[in-house]
Design a protein that fits this description.
Layout: H1 9-38, E1 41-57, E2 60-73, E3 76-80, H2 92-101, E4 107-112, E5 120-121, H3 128-153
Antiparallel strand pairs: 1-2, 1-4, 2-3, 4-5
Helix pairs in contact: 1-3
Length: 159
């Protein structure tokens, strides 16, 4: 099947605009979660287990911090393993650093969702770098498709 040139201009505009709500929607949901998690109730917790675990997939190994901690909320005991919105997955160094920050037996603060006390984190919120990165990805996506549209619509500008 032979190519007949660039996609139609209307398709490029649609592709450019479709990426914005998708990436910005993710960024906005992260922002909303970020705000909500910052208001969760603090509870004393004790780290029960802390280690670096590995995941093997397709001949690749990635590492993540594996924790278990116990906390009490409204007189009831709970256990969780959720550290935050990232677990240091990937390289061993960041995962080890995260596990070292929470050694077994350490007293820590857990942030508990008062509406669902089984849901707790040690590090609430997303980094602003993550949220800003999603906005930037949306802009780059839209900019790339818009530049294709300009090239297809106004070819003399590119000579």
């Amino acid at each position: 099947m032979a190519s007949s040139g660039p996609p139609p201009p209307w398709l490029m505009i649609v592709a450019a605009l479709a990426g914005l709500p998708f990436t910005w929607g993710f960024a906005y949901s992260f922002y909303v979660d970020n705000k909500a998690q910052k208001t969760w109730v603090r509870a004393a917790a004790t780290v029960l287990e802390s280690r670096v675990a590995e995941k093997r997939r397709d001949n690749r190994t990635s590492y993540y911090a594996h924790l278990r901690y116990r906390y009490t909320f409204n007189g009831r005991n709970y256990e969780s393993g959720q550290i935050g919105n990232a677990d240091g997955a990937g390289w061993r160094g960041p995962a080890q650093k995260l596990a070292n920050r929470y050694p077994a037996g350490a007293d820590v603060i857990a942030f508990v969702d008062p509406a669902n006390p089984e849901n707790a984190l040690l590090e609430p919120g997303y980094s602003w770098f993550t949220i800003a990165g999603l906005f930037l990805i949306g802009l780059v996506w839209a900019g790339g498709w818009l530049s294709f549209w300009v090239q297809a619509t106004f070819p003399r500008l590119w000579r």
